[in-house]
Structure formats: C-alpha cells, structure tokens
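Consider the tokenized backbone below.
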C-alpha cells in the first residue's frame, strides 16, 4: 500500500532527525512513534550519547518551541511550572510561566531532582495543564517531554517513583555507535554542528493532525482483547509484584496504532501489539522480591508474557 501524505511526513521526520542523530535510526523511530502516540520518552543511558541532540533535533524538525531544564537537588517545582508574582505598579498578581510551557521539554537528569520537584511533571504529562495557586493553566499543544537519567552514577539521585515511570510511554536506551557510524560522526561534525543539517519538515498543527490520524487506526475487538490479555497476564505473573496499569493498556493500544500507521496501514496487526509491548511495558513493572524471579529482568518477563498469551485467530 502506497504511503499517504501524513505517513510520508512521519517518515520524513524520522529521516530528518537521523541526519543529525546518526547510527541509531531504531531509537529515532521509537521516539517518533512515542511522539505520534501523544506520549513521552525516558532516555536512560550513560552521558555523551546524544540525548540532548535527539531532543533538539526533534524540536527543530517540528518548528516547535524547545526548552531544557537541568534537574538538580535544589530545583523547586515553581522553577518548572512557574510562579504567581505581585506587581507593585499594577497592584495585582500575575502568573509568570515556567519552562514547562513549551512544545518539546527536555528534562535533563530528572533523577537528580527531589521527588517533590519530579512530581511537578505528573499533572502536566497526564493532563496537559498545571495548577498553580489554585488556578489551572493549559499547556501548549503539542506537549512532548523527553527526560534523561544516568543509570551509572546513582549518588545524589532520587529514583523515579512508580507513578512517574508510568507516565512515560517508552523507556529507551541509545547505546554506543558502531565503528562505521562513529567514523561518520567524526567526519560530519569536524566542521559543522549536526543540528545545522536539521531542517523543519513539519509544523505543530500537522503533528496534531497526524496524532488524530493515529487514533483513528482501526483495532478490531479481538485485538483489543489481545491487548487486555497481555496486560492482565503481567498482573498474574509470578515474577512480578505489580503488573501494568490501565494507563499501560491505553498506551499499548496507541503505540500499536502508531506502528501500524507508520507502516501505511489503517488497521492493527498482532505483530504491532507484540513489538509495542516490548517497548511500552517493561519499565512499568515491579519485580517480585524474595523469590528466584528477582533475577529475571522486566524485559525478559514481557518476552515470556507476550509469547505465552494466545494470539486471536
């Protein structure tokens, strides 16, 4: 089936980002699928792999507003959401918007902030608004959070709580470049900033239209049941203390729809759901303590769950 205009735009977005973020098209594809799904991304990897570059390339490709927040232990929630200030000249209060009012927000090293500050993102990521001094302030659309954390240096960090992890549709690891890609990086960045090659290929209204098209991708009742069966299986697994939440059910469906959309299909296949489950679910699970299963990774558990749940005929 020939790709439609919106699908071509989504593929062009991936190709455009990959001109700067080289050698990792699978990571770019998964990040874009999260974007098309209306979700948020957690990048968990060691420093220096281009996490900030990826976020900036996405924003520039969308002609979107981009802001970056460096999370530290002394960062306050109001430093992110904004603050109500009193004007002595006007004798009234006004709201000064924080950096969360943007299209693409990079939360760098999110686990270095205190839980109180981390929680300032919860409302925004789920409901697309923030409440300050009892007043609700709507965020701009689209709103896409890319948060990063370093899994190696844990001193002075605060692990993300279960509720925060559940608000990320995927957790991605970038990994090191192979030799050919690293040589290419050296040559291409010797005299030029990689972002100079990134041109706008889409605007925010177009992205919002594509997100609506993704939600319109058909998923048959039997496959919706397959999504639910996978989620229910995580809750019954002996290896897990807690399985995936209902939010995980919704995210699994939407990510599967985005995967089908990118393949120029207006319907979801079981393989879309299987691949999506391996990306959308592992970071939402809590392994059971005090059993042999504690040594089994969440990713391995999802592999077992997906392989064990019968595919609808």
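A designed sequence for it:
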């Amino acid at each position: 089936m020939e790709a439609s205009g919106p699908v071509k735009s989504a593929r062009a977005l991936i190709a455009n980002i990959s001109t700067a973020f080289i050698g990792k098209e699978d990571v770019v594809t998964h990040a874009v699928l999260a974007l098309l799904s209306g979700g948020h991304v957690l990048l968990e990897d060691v420093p220096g792999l281009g996490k900030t570059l990826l976020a900036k390339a996405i924003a520039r490709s969308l002609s979107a507003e981009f802001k970056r927040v460096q999370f530290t232990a002394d960062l306050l929630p109001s430093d992110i959401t904004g603050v109500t200030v009193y004007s002595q000249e006007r004798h009234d209060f006004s709201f000064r918007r924080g950096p969360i009012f943007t299209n693409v927000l990079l939360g760098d090293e999110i686990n270095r902030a205190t839980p109180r500050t981390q929680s300032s993102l919860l409302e925004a990521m789920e409901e697309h608004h923030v409440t300050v001094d009892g007043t609700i302030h709507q965020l701009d659309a689209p709103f896409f959070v890319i948060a990063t954390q370093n899994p190696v240096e844990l001193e002075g960090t605060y692990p993300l709580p279960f509720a925060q992890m559940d608000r990320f549709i995927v957790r991605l690891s970038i990994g090191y470049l192979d030799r050919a890609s690293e040589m290419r990086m050296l040559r291409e960045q010797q005299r030029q900033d990689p972002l100079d090659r990134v041109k706008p290929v889409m605007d925010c209204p177009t992205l919002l239209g594509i997100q609506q098209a993704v939600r319109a991708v058909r998923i048959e009742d039997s496959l919706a049941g397959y999504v639910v069966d996978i989620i229910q299986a995580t809750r019954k697994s002996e290896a897990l203390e807690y399985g995936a939440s209902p939010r995980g059910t919704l995210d699994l469906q939407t990510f599967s729809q985005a995967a089908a959309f990118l393949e120029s299909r207006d319907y979801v296949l079981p393989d879309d759901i299987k691949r999506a489950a391996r990306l959308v679910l592992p970071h939402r699970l809590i392994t059971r303590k005090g059993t042999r299963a504690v040594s089994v990774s969440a990713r391995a558990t999802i592999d077992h769950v997906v392989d064990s749940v019968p595919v609808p005929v």
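Residues 5-192 form a domain with the Rossmann fold fold (CATH 3.40.50.300).
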